[in-house]
Design the sequence.
């Protein structure tokens, strides 16, 4: 049967807030968790992923989990280790113990951030897009934690039969705000469509997908996402003219423009991106 009750971790965050609004229309009953209380959702579970008992209680009885909680940018290694590495382990271990069938893991483009972006004149039809099996090349400790999460998902499938879809999310915000994001943008509505596909496709084992809209300037191959039944409806192109007029075209000589991970590849990462 299709999953109905879904635990959404990181529900107070940017993506969590968007998905709280959009996923119920796809038929889900959401149980919310975050370390921060949520003003407009007093029913949300306030718990740290470090608290194994609380996490186990939170996953009990749900059909599936969308795991968004964690640090979402570069940070000192010790912080990433706690929230993203140990935190994701605690979540998977609780899911295994409670017999939850599937986790949708919010991985990131930064797990493969040091992959050179395709040249502007690359042809998508002639293999010009970054394939899903490109070697992992994290651009930060943050990206490394996402690489760990993907391996953890694979281990829990191979050893315990716990299914996962790892979604290497591009940039999921209301609108793209940079020229790079024209290639990586996932509209919130497409994000909800992709999570829905990841929750409902059959026999996913552990599947890794790129997460974006069907952007004209796409850099990566959406094939494994489409194979789940994902049909993106949006394209960032209407934002292109304004963003390029404001920021200029990407410059391949600029290290912060040369790779998939954008500014995350520089040391230290340059904010804002
Ligand atoms: P965010 O930083 O706005 O939200 C993350 C949430 O996780 C926060 O509400 C925070 O309180 C919670 N959290 C952090 N540590 C926690 C812990 N130890 N226990 C419980 N909750 C904890 O990030 P955003 O943008 O909403 O991203 C959500 C997820 O998607 C993150 O895992 C991020 O790495 C991933 N992602 C997001 C992208 C995007 O474009 N928004 C792109 C790629 C990946
Ligand atoms: C991410 O992984 C971050 O969580 C998000 O805040 C954006 O920076 C996104 O990648 C991006 O690369 O645009």
Sequence:
């Amino acid at each position: 049967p299709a999953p109905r009750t879904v635990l959404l971790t990181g529900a107070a965050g940017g993506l969590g807030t968007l998905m709280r609004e959009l996923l119920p229309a796809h038929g889900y009953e959401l149980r919310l968790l975050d370390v921060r209380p949520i003003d407009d959702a007093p029913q949300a579970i306030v718990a740290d992923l470090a608290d194994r008992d609380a996490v186990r209680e939170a996953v009990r009885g749900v059909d599936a989990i969308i795991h968004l909680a964690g640090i979402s940018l570069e940070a000192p290694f010790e912080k990433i280790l706690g929230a993203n590495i140990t935190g994701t382990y605690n979540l998977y271990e609780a899911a295994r113990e409670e017999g939850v069938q599937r986790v949708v893991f919010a991985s990131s483009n930064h797990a493969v951030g040091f992959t050179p972006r395709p040249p502007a004149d690359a042809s998508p039809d002639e293999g010009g897009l970054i394939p899903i099996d490109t070697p992992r090349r994290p651009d930060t400790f943050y990206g490394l934690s996402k690489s760990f999460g993907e391996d953890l998902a694979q281990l829990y499938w191979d050893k315990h039969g716990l299914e996962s879809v790892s979604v290497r999310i591009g940039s999921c915000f209301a609108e793209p705000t940079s020229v790079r994001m024209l290639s990586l943008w996932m509209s919130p509505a497409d994000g909800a469509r992709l999570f829905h596909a990841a929750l409902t496709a059959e026999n996913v084992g552990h599947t890794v997908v790129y997460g974006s809209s069907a952007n004209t300037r796409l850099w990566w191959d959406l094939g494994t996402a489409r194979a789940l039944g994902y049909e993106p409806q949006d394209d960032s192109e209407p934002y292109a003219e304004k963003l390029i007029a404001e920021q200029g075209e990407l410059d391949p000589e600029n290290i912060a423009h040369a790779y998939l991970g954008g500014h995350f590849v520089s040391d230290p990462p340059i904010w804002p991106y």
